Amino acid sequence: MNNIPIPDKIPELDIAIKAAQEASNVILEIYQKDYNTFTKPDNSPVTDADLKSNKIINKILSSTKYSILSEEDIDDQSRLSKDMIWIVDPLDGTSDFIDKTGEFTVMIALIQNKKPILGVIAWPTEKILFVAQKNCGAFRYSNDKWDKISVTKIDELPKCRTVGSRHHLSEKEKEQLLTSIDDVVVDLQKKSDTISDDIQTAKEN
Fold this sequence. Notes:
Blueprint: H1 11-31, E1 37-39, E2 45-47, H2 48-61, E3 67-70, E4 84-92, H3 94-99, E5 105-112, E6 115-123, E7 128-133, E8 137-142, E9 145-149, H4 171-204
Parallel strand pairs: 3-4
Antiparallel strand pairs: 1-2, 4-5, 5-6, 6-7, 7-8, 8-9
C-alpha cells in the first residue's frame, strides 16, 4: 500500500490502518466459510468474525498503551479519566455479515480529550479504506491509490441524501422513509408529465 498523502501524519494513524487491514483479512476468511453465531445479552448477534477481529485489533492497538473501548469487550470505566482512548467496532454490521450482503466494516477511532483526532473505516468485501486525521482531511484508498474526499457543499436539507441501516430502523422510521420516497416519485412524475405536455404542445405548434 502507498503511504497516505498526509505530511503531518501521526504514528497512531499507521497503527490504526494496520489493525483495520489485518482485521478485515480475518473477517473475509471467516465470511467465506462456516462460522458460529451467538446472541449477546442485548439480543444483538455476534459471530466468530466479530470476536477474532476484536482480538487482532486489540493486540495491535495495545502497542500504543492507550485504553481501548470496544463493542465486544467489557467497558473499563477507568477510561473516563484518560486523555487518549481508542474506540473500536471490530465488525460494524454483523447482521449484514450474517445475511451475506457484503455491507459491513471495521471501525477504529482515536479520541484525545474527548474529541476524535483520527478515524479509519475498512470495508473488507470491497477492499476499501476511509481514513481521516484531524486538520488533515479525509481520504479513500481503493485500486491501489489514495483519493482525497470531502462532504457535499449542498446545504439545503431536502436536497441532501440520508443513509440508514435497514436493520436498525423502527417501524415509524421505515414508514416515514417510504412516505418521503413516495413524495419524491410523485413529484418526479408531475415534472415528467409537464415536460411531456410541453413537448406535445411544441409539436402541435
